[in-house]
Amino acid sequence: MIKFSVVIRTYNGEKYLPELLEKLRSQINTDNISWEIVIVDNNSTDNTAKIIQQYQLDWKKHFPINYYFESKQGASFARQRAMKEAKAPLIGFLDDDNIPAPDWVASAYTFGQAYPQAGAYGSRIHGDFEVQPPENFERIAGFFPIIEREQQICFNHGLSNRLGLFPPGAGLVIRKSAWDKNVPECLQLQGPIGNSLAAKGEDIEALSYIKKAGWEIWYNPAMEIYHRIPKTRFERDYILKFFRGVGLSRYWTRMLKHELWQRPFMIPVYIVNDFRKLMLHWFRYHNVIATDVVAAGERELILYTLLSPFYFWKNWIVKKRFENKP
């Protein structure tokens, strides 16, 4: 019986996949764990399929590599496919630009056994930067994501619960039973589609359903991965586009925290508070927005969070008109 599945979601990942697979090949402390590697190719146009086929031919390990092609582009579609194909009760997700520590599989499996009420739990994520991050990067590091906290966190309690925080999708482990019983097959947020960054937040949406069903959500620093971040992700155009996508998802991820009857009352509260944040940010940083990429990214996040209800309402109207066409 497979006890743990490592899922790699990839789009045009031929550059990174070989090193990632070599790191998985050399995992330690897994002798008593029956596990597998599941690769979900999210409509790649490069040589991803050929690279995986070659690895499958030469793979001499007792844990198999299974390859699946998902033609529907979008991170949420890739994760849904992975949840269907993975055979284990615990499913750990790595992006193709992640590098796991030598004991990541063992640490992830051990935590899942020790905390049976954990519906999902995230990893400690170190940055592997191609170039030096911009000044004040620590203010936005968690969005990339870089998570360096040393203590375990249960997101069901304390400040993390009040702020509605969740671990990021990179290095995330999901308990299959928690997913199957609570996460809808079609999520509102599709996540990144190819190179598009519109309406991110698909991981928060899925974890919101799991948490609302009573499962615990954790952060486990014993599970460590490294996240490669190329210099292009620090360019101004990328950062602005990235935070627009994060902001546009905020309306829906916020509404998931509230009951249906509460949502109409909460919408104006959020709008007023976001407008207040935008004004405060402008007063503090308007003189440096043109040169400070971190401040510019924060402004885009707040602005597009403020606009996110109108973005979702517009899309809803367009969808209804399309459905009502004869």
Q: Which structural class fits the helix and strand makeup?
A: alpha/beta
* Cα distance spanning the termini: 51 Å
Strand residue percentage: 15-25%
Total of DSSP H or I helical runs spanning 4+ residues: 10
Helix fraction?
40-55%
Low-pLDDT runs: none
Mind describing the biggest β-sheet?
9 strands, mixed
Overall spatial form: globular
Instruction: Give the C-alpha Rg.
Output: 20 Å
Kindly report the average pLDDT value: 93
Number of strands: 9
- Give, in order, the helices and strands: EHEHEHEEHEEHEHHEHHH
Walk me through the structure.
- The longest helix has 31 residues, at 293-323.
- Strands 1, 2, 3, 4, 5, 6, 7, 8 and 9 form a nine-stranded mixed β-sheet that branches.
- 41% of the residues are buried.
- This protein has helices spanning 17-25, 48-58, 75-85, 104-114, 158-163, 176-182, 202-212, 236-255, 263-285, 293-323; strands spanning 4-10, 35-41, 65-69, 90-95, 98-100, 118-129, 153-154, 173-175, 216-229.
- It is an alpha/beta fold and 326 residues long.
- α8 (236-255) packs across α10 (293-323) and α9 runs antiparallel to α10 (293-323).
Summarize the structure.
With 326 residues, the chain is an alpha/beta fold. The chain has 10 helices and 9 strands.
List the helices and strands and how they pair.
Elements: E1 4-10, H1 17-25, E2 35-41, H2 48-58, E3 65-69, H3 75-85, E4 90-95, E5 98-100, H4 104-114, E6 118-129, E7 153-154, H5 158-163, E8 173-175, H6 176-182, H7 202-212, E9 216-229, H8 236-255, H9 263-285, H10 293-323
Parallel strand pairs: 1-2, 1-4, 2-3, 6-9
Antiparallel strand pairs: 4-8, 5-9, 6-8, 7-9
